[in-house]
Amino acid sequence: MSATAGGVILRRLRDADGSMTLDRRHFLLSGAAAVLSGPVAAQADPIAGLVDQVSTDALVNVVHGLTRFPTRFTGHPNFPTVEGWMHDLMALQGDVTRFGFQMPSGKTRHNFILGDASDTRGVILIGAHYDSTSEDPLNNAPGANDNATGVAAMLEAYRILSGAGLNKSIVAVAFAGEEQGLFGSAALAEFARAEGWPIEMMVNLDMLGWRPPDPNAPMIVEYDMGNAVAGNDAASVAFGRLMANVAAQYTTLNTTHANIWSSDYMPFEAAGFPAMGLYDGGVASPRYGTSRDIAEVIDFDRLEQATRMVVAGVARYCGG
Ligand SMILES: [Zn+2]
């Protein structure tokens, strides 16, 4: 590599990374050209460049914002206020589609969608439910880990991936009605099937920030082993393995795998779409499903690592 090329790289790093990094790079550049190839090669990995954009502050802000509502129980008369907040947060990232559906009570509730779900290049749909429940759901259901964490990861992954120039359409969906029986996702999956949305993978994020007693406890990559439709299993398993690979490369997480179960990917799987998810094992927490599922005990490093995994996995799938 020529000295001129090195100069170009140096200026780019100064703009992107500030003076501390510049000094370090400058020190390296002052040595042999062979020394240069290491850091420059690392910098040139486009997936590393994307995962490093994951912002812990953004994740913290969304979790604290959602848990500021006393409850996000879908059946609560004030749920439309939660819907308005969710809509406005997503609208910071682009045009939001409101998707109405009926609860068994007859109440109309809404999912919110970012991105173009009919893009013929293919769609990666990243979903998370924003409703909550507890032992006292009409009064106190903070739903921090279940599932403000998933919503935070979804929005941060969408922010990064939708701006990355990938060869697929990235779509983010915030679901309501999950805790009563997957009503929001069931309605959208049926609509997507009827409309022929070209969904290549539904990535479901439900509980990502539990701090387990064993800090090395794995993040669970859930993929589709049977369930309602057999023909979509292979794509799900392949994507799950890809996610485990990128976890090893770009995160500090150990991973294991399990079947998909009891969350918003199920209706998509039943509609024939490939579907998988990430999950932290947090139903083992004594706080799960209670009014003690609060933001103060969320492991934001674990949530950040899970978000890095989503960004890296989707980017790798799209050929990044
Ligand atoms: Zn959940």
The H/E string reads HHHHHHEEEHEHEEHEHEH
Please tell me how large the radius of gyration is: 21 Å
Number of helices: 11
User: Which shape, going by the Cα principal axes?
Assistant: globular
Topology record:
Layout: H1 3-17, H2 19-29, H3 33-43, H4 46-51, H5 56-67, H6 79-91, E1 96-102, E2 108-114, E3 123-129, H7 144-162, E4 169-175, H8 183-195, E5 199-205, E6 219-223, H9 233-250, E7 255-259, H10 265-270, E8 275-279, H11 300-317
Parallel strand pairs: 3-4, 3-5, 5-8, 6-7
Antiparallel strand pairs: 1-2, 2-4, 6-8
Helix pairs in contact: 1-2, 5-7, 7-11, 9-11
This protein binds zinc ion.
Structure description:
The chain has about 325 residues and is of the alpha/beta class. The protein folds into 2 domains: about 40 residues, no CATH class; about 270 residues, Zn peptidases (Aminopeptidase). It contains 11 helices and 8 strands. Strands 1-2-4-3-5-8-6-7 form an 8-stranded mixed sheet, with helices on both faces. Helix 9 links the parallel strand 6 and strand 7. Helix 1 packs antiparallel against helix 2, helix 7 packs across helix 11 and helix 9 crosses helix 11. The chain is globular, with a radius of gyration of 21 Å. The N terminus is likely disordered. Bound molecules: zinc ion (ZN).
